[in-house]
Amino acid sequence: MGLAWEKEGGTGGPGDNLHSSSPNRGSIALRPVVGDQRPDRYHAALGGKICPPIACVPARAGGLNHSLRINPVGQFARSTVLRGARFPFGPATGPLKTWGLRSQVASPIVAAGCLAAPAVPAIEGGLPSSVTVSVRIFFPPQRAMQIIRYRDSAGNIHLGARHAGGQATRLEGELFGTLRDTREPAQVAKLLAPLQPADIVCIGLNYRKHAEEGGQPIPEYPVVFMKTSSACQNPGDPIVLPRRLRSDAVDYECELAVVIGKPCHNVSRADALNYVLGYTCANDVSARDWQIKKGGSQWCRGKTFATFCPLGPALVTADEIPNPNVLGIKTVLNGQTMQDWNTNDMIFDVPTLIEFLSGSTLLSPGTVILTGTPHGVGGARKPPVFLQPGDTVTIEIEKIGSLTNPVIEETC
Q: Which homologous superfamily does the CATH classification assign to the domain defined by 193-409?
């Protein structure tokens, strides 16, 4: 619906408080942001009873992190809330403030709180009351969430929110749409991978010390290969050593997995993290013989056997990890630490990878990007250390948790 803007009274000028004269006279509430959190862009429809109309108060000057721009022609988009559980519409906590708008078209608007809608005289020298404007609102992240996916005792699959102390509550909605925390205890009979990937895009030789241990030059561009989505494995379920196409050189690789949350195409490095839904642990299990010797110079055959991509235990939303390139990451095999490093050693950091991978390419929601492994892989050790039946391998990443899988061999 369109919305006409009017001045509260007096003569118009920069910094005037403007209010909606929409017949529905609805309000939209935002929670004040604290700190330097990265904004995410959404469209919002003003109108309809979103929160109770309130008396207008002057906008607080300075230090506000919500911003938007107005255009002289356009329509409001219907509300699009991609992460509804973390961006709920409703009355804000604490003092509510009105939008503080400038009367000049397309100038920045700074605001925090609610927009109320009394009918008032039109602004003089600025936006006339007959102008319909379109507004883009920049919503700051509100709160972090750790999302699990699980099966209950009846075999139904749900999403849940993992809380401090290991407790979990059931979520309603869609992972790439609106989520609502029911506050009901999650009846977790089986923990699953936090999502079924749309695609699994992988990066090789992306840690400097890993390239060095393999005697490889630092790549000029990211080294890209793929895993099939059918390689995905749940936490706690076994990594299966291939026996039909036999491999006796199956290796572990701890990796930070990036999950794309919305269609991502030709994005800039500066904007790249706005497309990330969250992060999880991954084990890029690799059959080195098929990867290096028997794969026809392509890595995919040795990387994409069934169960070769464990993911989990939770998808930690991007709000909780504002910088994915400062995380401790390790592999523990049968109680012994094999890899122990930090994501700050990536040759191409996460924003750079997203910019590169989305170049002339569409990354769909649910695309999982495996960002490479640090030094310490089994195949580079002397003598080599490869996975054996009966082993247990754990991937640990700071702020995310631990992903553990036993190892068995395939029965043909």
A: Fumarylacetoacetase-like, C-terminal domain (3.90.850.10)
Alpha helices in 338-400 (DSSP H): 350-357
* C-alpha separations of 52 from 43, 110, 114, 221 in Å: 20, 21, 9, 53
Over residues 350-391, the pLDDT tens digits come to 999 999 999 999 999 999 999 999 999 999 999 999 999 999
Q: Which of 302, 281, 80 is nearest to 195 (CA)?
A: 281
Cβ atoms of residues 146 and 315 within 8 Å: yes
For the chain, give every domain's residue range: 1-141, 146-191, 193-409
Express each pLDDT in 77-104 by its tens digit.
Answer: 222 222 222 222 223 233 222 233 222 2
Tokens of 209: 């010390």
Instruction: Calculate the dihedral angle through the C-alpha atoms of 170, 172, 178, 183, rounding to the nearest 10 degrees.
Output: -50
pTM of the model: 0.68
Torsion angle defined by CA atoms of residues 167, 169, 261 and 91, in that order, rounded to the nearest 10 degrees:
-120
d(CA 133, CA 349): 39
